[in-house]
Design a protein that fits this description.
The chain is an alpha/beta fold. 47% of the residues lie in helices and 15% in strands. It has a seven-stranded parallel β-sheet, sandwiched between helices. α2 links the parallel β2 and β3. α1 (15-26) crosses α9 (214-225), α3 runs parallel beside α4 (102-130) and α4 (102-130) runs parallel beside α6. The chain is globular.
Length: 245
């Protein structure tokens, strides 16, 4: 479905991001894995030896326009284009408002929102020159419902939803589609740190009767990146088993 295309996946070393990387590679794309450290990127690439000619690693500071532009330029130089950007890097927290520091709040917004802006800007400049592309952002179910603690995380995902809709309208003239995927409770490291009683309580309210798997989310990323979604832009696609809070 993606043969001949090149994708950059931020936060691509584990969890949902790594599932997206594998799904894109399986469907013929070249993929650049963006991680926070060279060590984590190298470990991820070791697991993808079957695709060594079609995968590369980068580790820029995602909030630095200069570092991101240089890294994306290296991807284009190696593979000839950047057709897909998956803005998946993100961090969460469950800190109570009473203990929340400005520093923690700012860190959440930097990684979850500022990095999406910086990477989208760098990718869009390349995509515009080549005649189009696709940007997909990772939102969350809490971007619609909020959550009872850790207010920085849902605030950041509300911002991602707004950024997605706005960029979709702005970049449509350049044939760049912009969408988001909003996972529900998914079996990742981020969920692993939650108290078990909280996971069970949330999972009990999922009509499909199970927690999501990274592959479930990666399948949505594949659809939105492919030509099957050629007339889909400005959408935040919920992949949550019809969960409600």
């Amino acid at each position: 479905m993606l043969k001949g295309k090149t994708a950059v996946v931020t936060g691509g070393t584990r969890g949902i991001g790594f599932a997206i990387v594998k799904k894109y590679l399986e469907n013929g794309a070249n993929v650049a894995i963006a991680g926070s450290r060279q060590e984590s990127v190298d470990k991820a690439m070791e697991k993808l030896s079957d695709y060594q000619d079609r995968v590369m690693g980068i580790w820029p500071d995602l909030c630095s326009p200069e570092e991101v532009a240089a890294a994306f330029g290296a991807v284009k130089e190696k593979f000839g284009s950047i057709d897909i950007l998956a803005n998946n890097a993100g961090i969460s927290s469950r800190t109570s408002l009473y203990e929340y520091t400005v520093e923690e709040f700012s860190k959440i917004l930097d990684i979850n929102v500022k990095a999406v802006f910086v990477c989208s800007q760098a990718a869009a400049r390349i995509m515009k020159d080549q005649g189009g592309g696709v940007i997909i952002n990772t939102s969350s179910m809490v971007g619609e419902y909020g959550q009872p603690s850790g207010c920085g995380y849902p605030a950041s995902k509300f911002a991602v939803n707004g950024l997605t809709k706005s960029l979709a309208r702005e970049l449509a003239k350049d044939q760049i589609r912009v969408n988001a995927v909003a996972p529900g409770v998914t079996r990742t490291d981020m969920v692993a740190v939650l108290p078990q009683d909280m996971v069970e309580r949330i999972s009990a309210g999922i009509p499909l009767g199970r927690m999501g798997e990274p592959l479930d989310i990666a399948n949505a990323y594949l659809y939105l990146a492919s030509d099957l979604a050629s007339y889909v832009t400005g959408v935040t696609l919920r992949v949550d088993g019809a969960a409600m809070t």
